[in-house]
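Good morning,

Attaching, inline, the C-alpha coordinates for the sequence recovery test we're adding to the shared suite. The designed sequence is right after.
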Protein backbone atom coordinates (compact mmCIF):
# COMPACT_ATOMS: atom_id res chain seq x y z
CA UNK A 1 0.00 0.00 0.00
CA UNK A 2 2.80 2.41 0.87
CA UNK A 3 4.61 1.62 -2.38
CA UNK A 4 1.45 2.22 -4.41
CA UNK A 5 0.86 5.49 -2.58
CA UNK A 6 4.46 6.64 -3.17
CA UNK A 7 4.34 5.86 -6.89
CA UNK A 8 0.91 7.46 -7.23
CA UNK A 9 2.04 10.65 -5.48
CA UNK A 10 5.17 10.77 -7.64
CA UNK A 11 3.17 10.49 -10.85
CA UNK A 12 0.68 13.09 -9.61
CA UNK A 13 3.34 15.62 -8.56
CA UNK A 14 5.85 15.19 -11.38
CA UNK A 15 3.53 14.36 -14.26
CA UNK A 16 -0.06 15.49 -13.70
CA UNK A 17 0.89 18.71 -11.93
CA UNK A 18 3.27 20.04 -14.65
CA UNK A 19 0.82 19.10 -17.40
CA UNK A 20 -2.05 20.84 -15.61
CA UNK A 21 0.14 23.86 -14.86
CA UNK A 22 1.08 24.28 -18.52
CA UNK A 23 -2.53 24.01 -19.63
CA UNK A 24 -3.87 26.42 -16.97
CA UNK A 25 -1.11 29.02 -17.21
CA UNK A 26 -2.33 30.87 -20.36
CA UNK A 27 -5.56 32.82 -20.18
CA UNK A 28 -8.49 32.29 -22.51
CA UNK A 29 -7.37 35.35 -24.42
CA UNK A 30 -4.00 33.72 -25.03
CA UNK A 31 -5.68 30.55 -26.29
CA UNK A 32 -7.95 32.61 -28.55
CA UNK A 33 -4.83 34.19 -30.05
CA UNK A 34 -3.90 30.83 -31.55
CA UNK A 35 -6.71 31.23 -34.09
CA UNK A 36 -6.13 34.93 -34.76
CA UNK A 37 -2.42 34.82 -35.52
CA UNK A 38 -1.87 33.83 -39.18
CA UNK A 39 1.62 32.49 -38.48
CA UNK A 40 0.35 30.26 -35.68
CA UNK A 41 -2.42 28.97 -37.90
CA UNK A 42 0.19 28.16 -40.55
CA UNK A 43 2.29 26.43 -37.89
CA UNK A 44 -0.68 24.26 -36.89
CA UNK A 45 -1.46 23.30 -40.47
CA UNK A 46 2.20 22.70 -41.33
CA UNK A 47 2.65 20.51 -38.25
CA UNK A 48 -0.30 18.29 -39.12
CA UNK A 49 0.65 18.00 -42.80
CA UNK A 50 4.31 17.29 -42.03
CA UNK A 51 3.29 14.64 -39.49
CA UNK A 52 1.05 12.90 -42.02
CA UNK A 53 3.54 13.00 -44.89
CA UNK A 54 6.63 12.02 -42.93
CA UNK A 55 4.76 9.28 -41.08
CA UNK A 56 3.72 7.71 -44.37
CA UNK A 57 7.22 7.71 -45.86
CA UNK A 58 8.99 6.71 -42.61
CA UNK A 59 6.60 3.79 -42.10
CA UNK A 60 7.01 2.71 -45.72
CA UNK A 61 10.80 2.79 -45.53
CA UNK A 62 10.73 0.98 -42.19
CA UNK A 63 8.42 -1.70 -43.57
CA UNK A 64 10.53 -2.28 -46.70
CA UNK A 65 13.71 -2.69 -44.67
CA UNK A 66 11.99 -4.86 -42.04
CA UNK A 67 10.48 -7.10 -44.71
CA UNK A 68 13.82 -7.39 -46.49
CA UNK A 69 15.74 -8.51 -43.40
CA UNK A 70 13.05 -10.79 -41.91
CA UNK A 71 11.14 -12.38 -44.81
CA UNK A 72 13.59 -12.57 -47.72
CA UNK A 73 17.06 -13.81 -48.49
CA UNK A 74 18.56 -10.49 -49.62
CA UNK A 75 22.33 -10.19 -49.03
CA UNK A 76 23.74 -8.22 -46.09
CA UNK A 77 20.65 -8.59 -43.91
CA UNK A 78 22.68 -8.31 -40.71
CA UNK A 79 24.39 -5.15 -41.94
CA UNK A 80 21.09 -3.54 -42.90
CA UNK A 81 19.62 -4.41 -39.50
CA UNK A 82 22.45 -2.59 -37.72
CA UNK A 83 22.24 0.48 -39.95
CA UNK A 84 18.46 0.66 -39.54
CA UNK A 85 18.65 1.15 -35.77
CA UNK A 86 21.76 3.35 -35.68
CA UNK A 87 19.85 6.68 -35.73
CA UNK A 88 18.09 5.70 -32.49
CA UNK A 89 21.36 6.09 -30.58
CA UNK A 90 22.10 9.68 -31.56
CA UNK A 91 20.38 13.04 -31.18
CA UNK A 92 17.51 13.15 -33.70
CA UNK A 93 18.71 16.52 -34.98
CA UNK A 94 21.91 14.90 -36.26
CA UNK A 95 20.15 14.26 -39.56
CA UNK A 96 19.05 17.87 -40.08
CA UNK A 97 22.43 19.21 -39.00
CA UNK A 98 24.31 16.96 -41.44
CA UNK A 99 21.83 17.67 -44.24
CA UNK A 100 21.84 21.43 -43.82
CA UNK A 101 25.50 22.15 -43.17
CA UNK A 102 27.65 19.14 -44.10
CA UNK A 103 26.07 17.32 -47.03
CA UNK A 104 24.13 20.05 -48.79
CA UNK A 105 24.16 23.83 -48.43
CA UNK A 106 26.91 26.22 -49.62
CA UNK A 107 29.79 24.08 -48.32
CA UNK A 108 28.08 20.71 -48.44
CA UNK A 109 30.00 17.66 -49.54
CA UNK A 110 27.53 16.74 -52.27
CA UNK A 111 26.67 20.23 -53.52
CA UNK A 112 30.02 21.96 -53.31
CA UNK A 113 32.82 19.38 -53.10
CA UNK A 114 31.34 16.70 -55.37
CA UNK A 115 29.03 18.45 -57.83
CA UNK A 116 30.80 21.81 -58.01
CA UNK A 117 34.52 21.37 -57.38
CA UNK A 118 35.03 17.77 -58.51
CA UNK A 119 32.53 17.13 -61.30
CA UNK A 120 31.95 20.78 -62.25
CA UNK A 121 28.28 20.01 -62.83
CA UNK A 122 26.88 22.90 -60.81
CA UNK A 123 28.02 26.50 -60.92
CA UNK A 124 28.89 27.69 -57.40
CA UNK A 125 26.55 30.68 -57.56
CA UNK A 126 23.71 28.41 -58.64
CA UNK A 127 24.67 25.94 -55.92
CA UNK A 128 24.60 28.66 -53.27
CA UNK A 129 21.22 29.90 -54.38
CA UNK A 130 19.42 26.61 -54.95
CA UNK A 131 20.73 24.49 -52.13
CA UNK A 132 20.56 27.29 -49.59
CA UNK A 133 16.89 27.77 -50.47
CA UNK A 134 16.31 24.02 -50.34
CA UNK A 135 17.62 23.87 -46.80
CA UNK A 136 14.93 26.19 -45.49
CA UNK A 137 11.72 24.60 -46.77
CA UNK A 138 9.25 21.89 -45.93
CA UNK A 139 10.33 19.39 -48.57
CA UNK A 140 13.80 18.77 -47.12
CA UNK A 141 12.27 18.62 -43.64
CA UNK A 142 10.01 15.85 -44.91
CA UNK A 143 13.07 13.89 -46.04
CA UNK A 144 14.90 14.56 -42.77
CA UNK A 145 11.97 13.47 -40.59
CA UNK A 146 11.68 10.30 -42.65
CA UNK A 147 15.37 9.50 -42.20
CA UNK A 148 15.31 10.32 -38.48
CA UNK A 149 12.29 8.22 -37.50
CA UNK A 150 12.02 5.28 -39.90
CA UNK A 151 14.10 3.18 -37.42
CA UNK A 152 11.15 3.20 -35.00
CA UNK A 153 8.91 1.70 -37.67
CA UNK A 154 11.63 -0.78 -38.60
CA UNK A 155 11.95 -2.08 -35.03
CA UNK A 156 8.22 -2.51 -34.47
CA UNK A 157 7.44 -4.01 -37.86
CA UNK A 158 10.43 -6.38 -37.87
CA UNK A 159 9.18 -7.81 -34.58
CA UNK A 160 5.71 -8.30 -36.05
CA UNK A 161 7.05 -9.96 -39.20
CA UNK A 162 9.28 -12.33 -37.25
CA UNK A 163 6.24 -13.52 -35.30
CA UNK A 164 4.43 -14.67 -38.46
CA UNK A 165 5.21 -18.36 -39.06
CA UNK A 166 7.03 -19.05 -42.33
CA UNK A 167 5.00 -22.23 -42.62
CA UNK A 168 1.94 -20.20 -43.60
CA UNK A 169 3.71 -18.83 -46.64
CA UNK A 170 5.00 -22.30 -47.57
CA UNK A 171 1.46 -23.69 -47.27
CA UNK A 172 0.08 -20.98 -49.55
CA UNK A 173 2.80 -21.60 -52.12
CA UNK A 174 2.22 -25.35 -51.98
CA UNK A 175 -1.40 -24.65 -52.88
CA UNK A 176 -0.23 -22.86 -56.00
CA UNK A 177 -0.28 -19.20 -54.92
CA UNK A 178 2.24 -16.90 -56.57
CA UNK A 179 4.72 -15.08 -54.30
CA UNK A 180 2.96 -11.73 -54.80
CA UNK A 181 -0.42 -13.24 -53.99
CA UNK A 182 1.02 -14.87 -50.86
CA UNK A 183 2.30 -11.49 -49.69
CA UNK A 184 -1.01 -9.67 -50.19
CA UNK A 185 -3.28 -12.42 -48.86
CA UNK A 186 -1.18 -13.96 -46.05
CA UNK A 187 1.81 -11.91 -44.92
CA UNK A 188 0.54 -8.35 -45.15
CA UNK A 189 -2.91 -8.95 -43.58
CA UNK A 190 -1.21 -10.57 -40.57
CA UNK A 191 1.28 -7.70 -40.33
CA UNK A 192 -1.25 -4.91 -40.91
CA UNK A 193 -2.06 -4.23 -37.22
CA UNK A 194 1.63 -3.98 -36.40
CA UNK A 195 2.28 -1.71 -39.38
CA UNK A 196 -0.58 0.57 -38.33
CA UNK A 197 0.67 0.62 -34.74
CA UNK A 198 4.17 1.44 -35.94
CA UNK A 199 2.84 4.28 -38.08
CA UNK A 200 0.94 5.81 -35.19
CA UNK A 201 4.01 5.52 -32.95
CA UNK A 202 6.15 7.25 -35.57
CA UNK A 203 3.52 9.97 -35.95
CA UNK A 204 3.72 10.75 -32.22
CA UNK A 205 7.48 11.23 -32.44
CA UNK A 206 7.34 13.33 -35.63
CA UNK A 207 4.56 15.52 -34.26
CA UNK A 208 6.66 16.35 -31.21
CA UNK A 209 10.02 16.67 -33.00
CA UNK A 210 11.78 19.89 -32.15
CA UNK A 211 15.47 19.67 -33.00
CA UNK A 212 15.24 18.84 -36.70
CA UNK A 213 12.98 21.72 -37.75
CA UNK A 214 14.79 24.13 -35.43
CA UNK A 215 18.14 23.44 -37.11
CA UNK A 216 16.92 22.89 -40.65
CA UNK A 217 14.28 25.54 -41.30
CA UNK A 218 15.42 28.35 -38.98
CA UNK A 219 11.80 29.42 -38.33
CA UNK A 220 11.20 29.91 -42.08
CA UNK A 221 8.78 26.96 -42.08
CA UNK A 222 6.65 27.52 -38.97
CA UNK A 223 5.77 24.52 -36.83
CA UNK A 224 4.14 24.47 -33.42
CA UNK A 225 7.21 23.20 -31.55
CA UNK A 226 9.62 25.74 -33.06
CA UNK A 227 7.14 28.58 -32.72
CA UNK A 228 6.78 27.81 -29.01
CA UNK A 229 10.54 28.08 -28.59
CA UNK A 230 10.77 31.22 -30.73
CA UNK A 231 7.94 32.85 -28.80
CA UNK A 232 9.87 32.45 -25.56
CA UNK A 233 13.43 33.29 -26.66
CA UNK A 234 12.72 36.10 -29.14
CA UNK A 235 10.52 38.08 -26.76
CA UNK A 236 11.74 36.88 -23.38
CA UNK A 237 11.14 40.21 -21.66
CA UNK A 238 7.47 40.28 -22.59
CA UNK A 239 4.83 39.17 -20.10
CA UNK A 240 3.16 37.24 -22.92
CA UNK A 241 6.25 35.23 -23.89
CA UNK A 242 5.72 32.28 -21.54
CA UNK A 243 1.90 32.13 -21.94
CA UNK A 244 2.22 32.22 -25.72
CA UNK A 245 4.82 29.45 -25.64
CA UNK A 246 2.49 27.41 -23.42
CA UNK A 247 -0.41 27.92 -25.86
CA UNK A 248 1.63 26.72 -28.82
CA UNK A 249 3.04 23.75 -26.92
CA UNK A 250 -0.44 22.88 -25.64
CA UNK A 251 -1.71 22.78 -29.21
CA UNK A 252 0.50 19.72 -29.69
CA UNK A 253 -1.23 17.83 -26.89
CA UNK A 254 -4.57 17.20 -28.61
CA UNK A 255 -3.23 15.48 -31.76
CA UNK A 256 -0.59 13.70 -29.67
CA UNK A 257 -3.21 12.23 -27.35
CA UNK A 258 -5.43 11.26 -30.29
CA UNK A 259 -2.54 9.41 -31.94
CA UNK A 260 -1.56 7.83 -28.64
CA UNK A 261 -5.03 6.43 -27.88
CA UNK A 262 -5.49 5.30 -31.48
CA UNK A 263 -2.20 3.44 -31.31
CA UNK A 264 -3.14 1.71 -28.07
CA UNK A 265 -6.66 0.90 -29.26
CA UNK A 266 -5.46 -0.43 -32.59
CA UNK A 267 -2.76 -2.63 -31.11
CA UNK A 268 -5.04 -3.96 -28.36
CA UNK A 269 -8.17 -4.52 -30.47
CA UNK A 270 -6.77 -5.43 -33.87
CA UNK A 271 -4.37 -8.21 -33.00
CA UNK A 272 -4.36 -11.08 -35.49
CA UNK A 273 -3.17 -14.41 -34.12
CA UNK A 274 -2.03 -17.56 -35.79
CA UNK A 275 -2.98 -20.86 -34.21
CA UNK A 276 -0.88 -23.91 -34.76
CA UNK A 277 1.29 -26.49 -33.13
CA UNK A 278 4.99 -26.13 -32.49
CA UNK A 279 6.75 -23.06 -33.75
CA UNK A 280 8.96 -23.53 -36.76
CA UNK A 281 12.37 -22.17 -37.71
CA UNK A 282 11.94 -22.59 -41.45
CA UNK A 283 14.09 -20.44 -43.72
CA UNK A 284 12.38 -17.72 -45.74
CA UNK A 285 10.74 -19.00 -48.95
CA UNK A 286 12.72 -18.21 -52.10
CA UNK A 287 12.26 -14.58 -53.12
CA UNK A 288 11.80 -13.69 -56.82
CA UNK A 289 14.98 -12.17 -58.20
CA UNK A 290 13.32 -8.87 -59.15
CA UNK A 291 11.88 -8.40 -55.65
CA UNK A 292 15.07 -9.56 -53.99
CA UNK A 293 17.36 -7.14 -55.77
CA UNK A 294 14.81 -4.35 -55.66
CA UNK A 295 14.66 -4.62 -51.88
CA UNK A 296 18.44 -4.90 -51.74
CA UNK A 297 18.75 -1.67 -53.73
CA UNK A 298 16.28 0.10 -51.46
CA UNK A 299 18.10 -1.04 -48.31
CA UNK A 300 21.47 -0.11 -49.83
CA UNK A 301 20.33 3.44 -50.69
CA UNK A 302 18.88 4.01 -47.22
CA UNK A 303 22.01 2.59 -45.58
CA UNK A 304 24.28 4.82 -47.66
CA UNK A 305 22.24 7.87 -46.72
CA UNK A 306 22.42 6.98 -43.02
CA UNK A 307 26.15 6.27 -43.22
CA UNK A 308 26.74 9.53 -45.08
CA UNK A 309 25.22 11.42 -42.14
CA UNK A 310 27.48 9.73 -39.59
CA UNK A 311 30.49 9.82 -41.88
CA UNK A 312 30.07 13.55 -42.49
CA UNK A 313 29.70 14.35 -38.79
CA UNK A 314 32.71 12.30 -37.72
CA UNK A 315 34.84 13.55 -40.63
CA UNK A 316 33.93 17.22 -40.08
CA UNK A 317 35.16 16.92 -36.50
CA UNK A 318 38.57 15.76 -37.75
CA UNK A 319 39.33 18.23 -40.59
CA UNK A 320 40.39 21.87 -40.33
CA UNK A 321 37.52 23.42 -42.32
CA UNK A 322 34.70 21.35 -43.80
CA UNK A 323 34.28 21.97 -47.51
CA UNK A 324 37.39 24.15 -47.72
CA UNK A 325 40.47 22.63 -46.05
CA UNK A 326 40.51 18.85 -45.72
CA UNK A 327 43.69 18.70 -43.64
CA UNK A 328 43.48 16.42 -40.59
CA UNK A 329 43.15 18.53 -37.46
CA UNK A 330 42.13 17.80 -33.87
CA UNK A 331 41.43 21.40 -32.89
CA UNK A 332 37.68 20.84 -32.90
CA UNK A 333 37.98 18.04 -30.38
CA UNK A 334 40.25 20.21 -28.21
CA UNK A 335 37.71 23.03 -28.34
CA UNK A 336 34.91 20.56 -27.63
CA UNK A 337 36.64 19.59 -24.40
CA UNK A 338 36.03 23.16 -23.29
CA UNK A 339 32.43 22.02 -22.87
CA UNK A 340 33.41 19.18 -20.55
CA UNK A 341 31.16 20.49 -17.77
CA UNK A 342 28.14 20.17 -20.06
CA UNK A 343 29.22 16.70 -21.20
CA UNK A 344 29.63 15.68 -17.58
CA UNK A 345 26.19 17.09 -16.75
CA UNK A 346 24.63 15.11 -19.59
CA UNK A 347 26.35 11.90 -18.54
CA UNK A 348 25.44 12.27 -14.85
CA UNK A 349 21.85 13.24 -15.64
CA UNK A 350 21.50 10.28 -18.00
CA UNK A 351 22.90 7.83 -15.44
CA UNK A 352 20.55 9.09 -12.72
CA UNK A 353 17.67 9.03 -15.20
CA UNK A 354 18.41 5.46 -16.23
CA UNK A 355 18.49 4.17 -12.66
CA UNK A 356 15.56 6.15 -11.25
CA UNK A 357 13.28 5.84 -14.29
CA UNK A 358 13.88 2.10 -14.42
CA UNK A 359 13.16 1.76 -10.69
CA UNK A 360 9.94 3.77 -10.90
CA UNK A 361 8.82 1.98 -14.06
CA UNK A 362 9.42 -1.54 -12.74
CA UNK A 363 7.88 -0.73 -9.36
CA UNK A 364 4.77 0.60 -11.10
CA UNK A 365 4.71 -2.48 -13.34
CA UNK A 366 4.98 -4.76 -10.29
CA UNK A 367 2.13 -2.99 -8.53
CA UNK A 368 -0.24 -3.06 -11.50
CA UNK A 369 0.67 -6.61 -12.54
CA UNK A 370 0.87 -8.29 -9.12
CA UNK A 371 -1.15 -6.21 -6.64
CA UNK A 372 -4.79 -5.29 -6.29
CA UNK A 373 -5.53 -1.81 -4.95
CA UNK A 374 -7.84 1.14 -5.54
CA UNK A 375 -6.62 3.23 -8.46
CA UNK A 376 -4.65 0.49 -10.21
CA UNK A 377 -6.17 1.38 -13.58
CA UNK A 378 -5.34 5.06 -13.05
CA UNK A 379 -1.73 4.20 -12.23
CA UNK A 380 -1.51 2.12 -15.41
CA UNK A 381 -2.81 5.06 -17.43
CA UNK A 382 -0.47 7.61 -15.84
CA UNK A 383 2.57 5.34 -16.24
CA UNK A 384 2.16 5.26 -20.01
CA UNK A 385 0.81 8.79 -20.47
CA UNK A 386 4.25 10.46 -20.90
CA UNK A 387 4.60 8.54 -24.18
CA UNK A 388 1.94 10.87 -25.58
CA UNK A 389 3.37 14.11 -24.14
CA UNK A 390 5.69 16.04 -26.48
CA UNK A 391 9.03 16.71 -24.85
CA UNK A 392 8.83 20.45 -25.43
CA UNK A 393 5.44 20.57 -23.66
CA UNK A 394 6.71 18.59 -20.67
CA UNK A 395 9.81 20.78 -20.37
CA UNK A 396 7.69 23.92 -20.52
CA UNK A 397 5.27 22.44 -17.98
CA UNK A 398 8.15 21.82 -15.55
CA UNK A 399 9.39 25.38 -16.10
CA UNK A 400 5.94 26.77 -15.21
CA UNK A 401 5.11 24.35 -12.38
CA UNK A 402 8.48 24.42 -10.62
CA UNK A 403 9.59 27.94 -11.50
CA UNK A 404 8.21 29.44 -8.31
CA UNK A 405 6.28 28.72 -5.15
CA UNK A 406 5.41 26.25 -3.72
CA UNK A 407 7.91 23.94 -5.47
CA UNK A 408 10.74 26.15 -6.67
CA UNK A 409 13.18 23.86 -8.50
CA UNK A 410 14.01 25.89 -11.62
CA UNK A 411 17.74 26.54 -11.80
CA UNK A 412 18.67 23.24 -10.14
CA UNK A 413 19.84 19.92 -11.53
CA UNK A 414 16.91 18.20 -9.86
CA UNK A 415 14.30 19.69 -12.18
CA UNK A 416 16.15 18.39 -15.25
CA UNK A 417 16.61 14.90 -13.82
CA UNK A 418 12.98 14.69 -12.70
CA UNK A 419 11.72 15.77 -16.12
CA UNK A 420 13.96 13.17 -17.78
CA UNK A 421 12.87 10.46 -15.33
CA UNK A 422 9.12 10.80 -15.73
CA UNK A 423 9.39 11.35 -19.49
CA UNK A 424 11.14 7.97 -19.74
CA UNK A 425 8.87 5.89 -17.51
CA UNK A 426 6.54 4.44 -20.23
CA UNK A 427 8.98 2.23 -22.15
CA UNK A 428 10.43 0.77 -18.96
CA UNK A 429 6.94 0.28 -17.57
CA UNK A 430 5.81 -1.64 -20.65
CA UNK A 431 9.01 -3.72 -20.57
CA UNK A 432 8.27 -4.51 -16.92
CA UNK A 433 4.69 -5.53 -17.67
CA UNK A 434 5.93 -7.82 -20.43
CA UNK A 435 8.48 -9.31 -18.04
CA UNK A 436 5.93 -9.97 -15.28
CA UNK A 437 3.54 -11.50 -17.82
CA UNK A 438 6.18 -14.16 -18.54
CA UNK A 439 6.70 -15.04 -14.86
CA UNK A 440 4.20 -17.52 -13.46
CA UNK A 441 2.50 -16.39 -10.27
CA UNK A 442 2.94 -19.80 -8.66
CA UNK A 443 6.70 -19.14 -8.38
CA UNK A 444 6.01 -16.25 -6.01
CA UNK A 445 3.32 -18.26 -4.22
CA UNK A 446 5.81 -21.06 -3.64
CA UNK A 447 8.24 -18.57 -2.11
CA UNK A 448 5.48 -17.21 0.14
CA UNK A 449 4.60 -20.76 1.21
CA UNK A 450 8.20 -21.24 2.26
CA UNK A 451 7.96 -18.18 4.51
CA UNK A 452 9.39 -15.49 2.25
CA UNK A 453 8.02 -11.95 2.55
CA UNK A 454 6.75 -10.09 -0.53
CA UNK A 455 10.02 -8.17 -0.76
CA UNK A 456 12.13 -11.33 -0.41
CA UNK A 457 9.99 -13.15 -2.97
CA UNK A 458 10.39 -10.28 -5.41
CA UNK A 459 14.16 -10.06 -4.88
CA UNK A 460 14.81 -13.82 -5.09
CA UNK A 461 12.25 -14.80 -7.74
CA UNK A 462 11.18 -11.86 -9.90
CA UNK A 463 14.31 -9.71 -9.94
CA UNK A 464 16.64 -12.28 -11.60
CA UNK A 465 14.03 -13.01 -14.24
CA UNK A 466 13.49 -9.29 -14.85
CA UNK A 467 17.16 -8.62 -15.55
CA UNK A 468 16.58 -8.19 -19.33
CA UNK A 469 13.71 -5.76 -18.70
CA UNK A 470 15.78 -3.79 -16.18
CA UNK A 471 18.85 -3.42 -18.40
CA UNK A 472 16.79 -2.70 -21.53
CA UNK A 473 14.84 -0.02 -19.66
CA UNK A 474 18.05 1.53 -18.36
CA UNK A 475 19.58 1.68 -21.85
CA UNK A 476 16.52 3.34 -23.37
CA UNK A 477 16.25 5.90 -20.56
CA UNK A 478 20.00 6.63 -20.70
CA UNK A 479 20.02 7.11 -24.47
CA UNK A 480 16.90 9.28 -24.54
CA UNK A 481 18.11 11.44 -21.65
CA UNK A 482 21.57 12.08 -23.06
CA UNK A 483 20.34 12.86 -26.58
CA UNK A 484 17.16 14.86 -25.92
CA UNK A 485 16.92 18.54 -26.72
CA UNK A 486 13.21 19.26 -26.47
CA UNK A 487 12.78 18.42 -22.77
CA UNK A 488 15.96 20.23 -21.70
CA UNK A 489 15.74 23.40 -23.77
CA UNK A 490 13.44 25.24 -21.34
CA UNK A 491 15.03 23.89 -18.16
CA UNK A 492 18.77 24.50 -18.56
CA UNK A 493 20.53 27.41 -16.88
CA UNK A 494 24.13 28.62 -17.26
CA UNK A 495 25.15 26.36 -14.38
CA UNK A 496 23.23 23.29 -15.53
CA UNK A 497 23.51 23.13 -19.30
CA UNK A 498 23.60 19.86 -21.25
CA UNK A 499 25.50 18.82 -24.35
CA UNK A 500 22.59 18.91 -26.80
CA UNK A 501 21.95 22.57 -25.97
CA UNK A 502 25.64 23.36 -26.44
CA UNK A 503 25.60 21.59 -29.82
CA UNK A 504 22.66 23.78 -30.87
CA UNK A 505 24.59 26.88 -29.76
CA UNK A 506 27.68 25.79 -31.73
CA UNK A 507 25.61 25.17 -34.86
CA UNK A 508 23.96 28.59 -34.58
CA UNK A 509 27.34 30.27 -34.14
CA UNK A 510 28.85 28.48 -37.18
CA UNK A 511 31.26 26.29 -35.17
CA UNK A 512 30.36 23.17 -37.11
CA UNK A 513 33.52 21.23 -36.34
CA UNK A 514 33.01 21.62 -32.59
CA UNK A 515 29.33 20.70 -32.95
CA UNK A 516 30.35 17.58 -34.86
CA UNK A 517 32.91 16.61 -32.22
CA UNK A 518 30.34 16.94 -29.42
CA UNK A 519 27.75 15.02 -31.43
CA UNK A 520 30.28 12.26 -32.11
CA UNK A 521 31.08 12.11 -28.40
CA UNK A 522 27.38 11.62 -27.55
CA UNK A 523 27.17 8.89 -30.16
CA UNK A 524 30.17 7.08 -28.67
CA UNK A 525 28.61 7.26 -25.19
CA UNK A 526 25.25 5.88 -26.31
CA UNK A 527 26.77 3.13 -28.43
CA UNK A 528 29.10 2.25 -25.56
CA UNK A 529 26.10 1.89 -23.23
CA UNK A 530 24.31 -0.26 -25.79
CA UNK A 531 27.41 -2.39 -26.36
CA UNK A 532 27.86 -3.11 -22.65
CA UNK A 533 24.18 -4.02 -22.34
CA UNK A 534 24.44 -6.30 -25.36
CA UNK A 535 27.42 -8.08 -23.80
CA UNK A 536 25.40 -8.60 -20.63
CA UNK A 537 22.16 -9.78 -22.27
CA UNK A 538 22.98 -10.86 -25.82
CA UNK A 539 19.85 -11.27 -27.91
CA UNK A 540 17.64 -10.75 -24.85
CA UNK A 541 18.27 -7.00 -25.08
CA UNK A 542 15.18 -5.19 -26.38
CA UNK A 543 15.33 -1.44 -26.84
CA UNK A 544 12.80 1.12 -28.11
CA UNK A 545 10.11 -1.55 -28.56
Amino acid sequence: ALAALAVGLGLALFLVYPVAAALRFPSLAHYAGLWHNPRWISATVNTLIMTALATGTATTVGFLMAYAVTRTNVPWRGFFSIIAILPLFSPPFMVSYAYRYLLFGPNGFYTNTLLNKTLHLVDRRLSLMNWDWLGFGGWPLWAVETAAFFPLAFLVISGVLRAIPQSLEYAARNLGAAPGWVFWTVTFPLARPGVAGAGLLVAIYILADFGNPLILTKFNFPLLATEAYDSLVSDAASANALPNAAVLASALIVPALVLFFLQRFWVSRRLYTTIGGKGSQLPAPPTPALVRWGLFGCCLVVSLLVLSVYGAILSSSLVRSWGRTWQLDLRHWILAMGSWNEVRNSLVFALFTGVIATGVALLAAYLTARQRFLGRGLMDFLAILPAAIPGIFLGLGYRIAFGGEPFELYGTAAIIVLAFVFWNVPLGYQAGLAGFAQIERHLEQAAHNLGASSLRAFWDVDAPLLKPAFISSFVVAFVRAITTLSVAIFLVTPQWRVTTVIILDRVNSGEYGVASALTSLLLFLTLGCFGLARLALGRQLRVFT
